[in-house]
Design brief:
about 100 residues; alpha+beta; Alpha-Beta Plaits; about 30% strand; YCII-related domain-containing protein
């Protein structure tokens, strides 16, 4: 398996955030049901944003992850100001990898 960290930067005061959140969560839940998400959720500090950890096949590339995450309604509706996608190599983990 390969793991990818997707870091979202968005304005927590965006008036459309609450409107688009149900579609975003449905997108995330679909990936989770396909066992492609290890975890996801918002940062709770003053900077806000979110982290999504994807667990994908060994032949997956960052470009593949970009294609997957382009389907997120937060991205489509321009809720996300900036997105960083990086391959991640867990060494120590409390979750099953």
């Amino acid at each position: 398996m390969k793991y990818f960290a997707v870091i979202y930067d968005y304005n927590a005061n965006n008036p459309r955030l609450d409107e688009v959140r149900p579609q975003h969560r449905e997108f995330i839940e679909t990936l989770h049901n396909q066992e492609q998400i290890l975890g996801s959720g918002p940062f709770t500090d003053s900077k806000r944003g979110a982290l999504i950890i994807l667990k994908l096949d060994e032949d997956t590339t960052v470009d593949d992850v970009v294609t997957i995450m382009d389907g997120d309604p937060y991205w489509i509706e321009e809720i996300v100001n900036k997105r960083d996608i990086r391959e991640w190599g867990p060494v120590t983990a409390s979750f099953e990898i």
